[in-house]
Amino acid sequence: MMNKRIYLCEDSVESIFTGVYNAWEDRYPKEFVELSVNSYESNYELFSEYINVVTDFDKANRVAKTLELKFGNEVYTSIYQAALSNAKDKAQAVFKTINIGLKSKRPRQLMENLQDKHICRVFELSRAVFNERSHLLGFVRFKELNSQVLCSVIEPKNNVVMLIAPHFADRLPGEKWMIYDKGRNIAVIHEKGEQWGVIKSEKLNFEMLKQMSDSEKLFEAWWKGFCESISIKERKNIKLQKQNLPLRFQENMVEFH
């Protein structure tokens, strides 16, 4: 019996796609191949070979183009979104689903085969990521800083900051804005009239994020006053509020401060 070969990826789409490319390139029997975003530092398996994946953007881009060409945009989007999930088993689910799709006679209908546990898992993860993205489009709050940059801080479960960026780039094309994912230390940056990009937050001046402009302070006071004035104490329903607006979103919304 052959040893299992486990590719250890970083927690990013690019690293997972690089792992997929390396597994194809190595031509090791796919039934003995596993992809993981876990470190395995404390639970190495016997008779297994561990390979650290070095993220290669060229390889990742080749995989992405191949998947979109063979599977179509809808299936590719599901796989891409699943790779943005915070689930520990996402890399393996993505890898197995891709392999099934490459052997399928109907790869563009791949996500209809929910009887397969790997495809079903990709479907579940993709839906969870999409739902969180949809929530954040309504719950993101920007604050104007002294630097005239509009800044929003979010703490999503999944890595959705790249998914919400196009929405705000389309609606705020003439503004300088930033959406900062506090938990992952990454931020989307947008300059006036330019394309948005992603940076590591180690390059950010965190003190700057606390320095609100005078007009922002005034508008925040008005907004809080408005929210208080329209609320009806006798009809307050905290349970329903939590259902419609999870607590984890409220921390970064000015009306709850």
Automatic annotation (TrEMBL):
Residue ranges annotated for the DUF4130 domain, each copy included: 89-255
Pfam family, one: DUF4130
InterPro entries linked to this entry: DNA_repair_put (IPR023875), DUF4130 (IPR025404)
Top-level taxon: Bacteria
Protein name (database record): DNA metabolism protein
The species this protein was found in: Lachnotalea glycerini
